[in-house]
Amino acid sequence: MHEITLIPGDGIGPEVTDAARAVIEAAGVQVQWDVRPAGMKVGEETGNPLPESVFDSIARTRIALKGPTATPFGEAYRVERKTKRADGGAETRVYPSVAIALRKELELYANVRPVKSYPGVASRYSGVDIVLFRENSEDLYLGRERMVDDDTAEALKIITRGATQRMAKFSADYMQRLGRKRVTIGHKSNVLKLTDGLFLKTSLEVLAGYPGITADSRVIDALCMELVLKPESFDCLLLANLYGDIVSDLLAGVVGGLGLAPGANLGNDYAMFEAVHGTAPDIAGKDMANPLSMILSSVMLLRYIGEAAAADRVDAALSKVLVEKRDVTRDLGGEAGTKRMTAAIVEKLQKH
Ligand code: NAI
Predict the structure, then answer these.
(1) Distance CA 341, CA 346 (A)
(2) Model-level pTM?
């Protein structure tokens, strides 16, 4: 029996996490779910979008499956965590979103986002099979901004040698486990000579210590162009936090959309699995969301907890549903709702 923290999230979050939960259970994996709501709705109801009970739960289970959580666009929004310091004093750390707060507080420094072409999914490309490694703990994405005066805003971009070394090493070790051989580092060190320069130089130094891995690099804008022209020619990508966020969605589009983009946030002590997509407010509550990104994130979770056979069964079941095309959601050209697509995957799992 595995105990897993489940954060349903906002918008389509509850719909797609319900789907993932049903599929994991249909795969025969015994799970005790500790459901811990967090997100904008929880914040509106309680004044705190990220209750301490979420951290208490993950401290025990060490693993979370998280639905997307909403963050308002361009408005002031704070997610706070109050803790006690060793000397008894209080400390409050502030983050721009629930997802970032969880990643930082749990030291989930590595974001792994595999992207691949699925048979049966109409897209402009075939044969795409990329693993994107996104540094998850620093860079502009932490949202450290301030108004200098009424007309000027500034944001802090921090890149450290230590976090970059840790991430490059994580990526190389992960690649070795997967048998992957080539990694391309994306950067803008022609302009951001110090920050991106440090990321590039440090990553290359670490990767040079892995004789079985070839590392090369591209300026981030040229990398985007090449990913659109010939995505099938890339193996792995190593990117700082903000570029990783943007390129993840670009690659999701390359293989058929945000409904097919899973992810894992990993650290030394904890793991949190979540889809690349957000809360999709335009389709929330309408039984229209594609549940596959969350189900594929669950496949990553199953492999992480040592349930590889169940992960393979889920992969096979969802691939059959994609190839048959009968029970797929609208974003994939079908007419099924979230529930029908999930039921079709569950049915395949029960038959085999
Ligand atoms: P989004 O990913 O929610 O939606 C972008 C577009 O993709 C929308 O048209 C949406 O309908 C579609 N889409 C997304 N997931 C889909 C799915 N599973 N099936 C079918 N269509 C899908 O991005 P957006 O609109 O920029 O953000 C909405 C909210 O989500 C914001 O509050 C944002 O902060 C939050 N967000 C949260 C994340 C997290 O918790 N990790 C990640 C990204 C965004």
Answers:
(1) 9
(2) 0.97
